[in-house]
Fold this protein.
Amino acid sequence: AQKITQTQPGMFVQEKEAVTLDCTYDTSDPSYGLFWYKQPSSGEMIFLIYQGSYDQQNATEGRYSLNFQKARKSANLVISASQLGDSAMYFCAMREEYTGTASKLTFGTGTRLQVTL
Amino acid sequence: NAGVMQNPRHLVRRRGQEARLRCSPMKGHSHVYWYRQLPEEGLKFMVYLQKENIIDESGMPKERFSAEFPKEGPSILRIQQVVRGDSAAYFCASSPTDRGSSYEQYFGPGTRLTVT
């Protein structure tokens, strides 16, 4: 079974609008972390935001927020006030603390976001 | 504070040659991870190393691939006798610790390997 599922291969959003990128995960580990990374066309991986499984509050980082619904095992990324520079691939990833080697990140297949005028 | 360095950024090899990819972690980081990204796919974990030790190589192909992180110098990912299917972007990441689940891994810019 996929540990990280991103069901939206591509998304379009108009400039200044908000957009939600979906991510669901599968784990039986009681302690885990969820990450979102941005990969622009230049190819580097840029860390955006982190949510811990025990965190009570949803994570926020500037225009990025994470809609964490633990019971549904979802960790959707919300980008507010989209900008043209937000056009990129976005990857959701998870680290499980006790399963296997705790250190590795497991990535989803990504969502390509295109911001239009 | 320099970030994770990878070189070369682009590498072209003919089938059957060897590819050597280098990664210098961030200052103070002793944990290095290698990931591979095939075209139009997400990153896949390959190997996790600490200085002079391979901690987890569960994602490494059984043959032709090896990795090291010596006491001095960068981490090296070596691919022997490359084939076209090895064409991919190889990312290195580093972290200051491996305890808990909250620490961030800092990624390098990647090495794009093309096998002709």
The mean pLDDT of chain B is 92. The longest strand of chain B covers residues 43-50. Chain B is about 0% helix and 50% strand.
